[in-house]
Protein 1
Amino acid sequence: MRAVVQRVSRARVTVNGAVSGEIPHGLMILLGVGREDTPAVAAALAEKAANLRIFEDDRRLSGYDVGGADE
């Protein structure tokens, strides 16, 4: 499993012209999944992404620190 993580001020996913999801600010993750990847690998990657300290502040906040949503 591979991921590209980018901090965004907003992001939106559209499918066939219809919005299927959007966020005001947070992390946009482009994810590549292989046949050998398991739910445990996905959970570990999600935890790692949520704990990245990339939000602006003197302390460099994580997704958890800024109130990221689990959706």
Protein 2
Amino acid sequence: MHALRARLDSVRDRLARAASRAGRDPASVRLVAVSKTFSAERVRAAAAAGQVDFGENKVQEALRKMDETADLPLRWHLVGHLQSNKARKTAARFDVIHSLDGVALMRQLDEAAVAAGRSLDLLVQVDLAGEPTKHGIRPEAVLPLLEAARTCRAARVKGLMLLPPAVSEPEAARASFVELRRLRDRLAAAGVDPAMLGELSMGMSGDFEVAIEEGATIVRVGSAIFGPREQSASA
């Protein structure tokens, strides 16, 4: 656990230095510790070091950890793909969904959040590269989704999310981050409500510093904080 705290401190320091290089306030970047496959005890250790935001890929695995850490004031992010049949339980427990990829799913999440009596933040996952193995919507579909989001009652679209193509060097991901930022800027120029474009969730353990330099407001960091992945339980 001492090693975990040291890694977390190192990531925070790298985040701050990247923000400073870009002339940004480090406080403008939210660090999400991606705890998928790691135990609730690891989540508790990170929380004891001041971490509040945690990300999970699988709903059932996350719900178990939420129950095991219910005494802590944590904020939970779903960063993996969401199947529509899990929309209701997801909307009732998570704070932020990073993987919105369609109007129908948005409607389901909104209705579920209304039924649960709570608000829910959504990020639109954008597929810039057209990769068949990844989820998300193509850039040209983002504006119609945002227009549809204006009628939501409890769910609120807050920005965009990106999973860039795998690269061997962090610098190779920069073009993807720039492209997402430019898409955000084009949407703003088209008159989209700024409240729907405030967040850019991009950057992970291998490239989060480059993402921050290009405007990321949320970075999703797992192994750089928790170490090598553990074998996941069924979820």
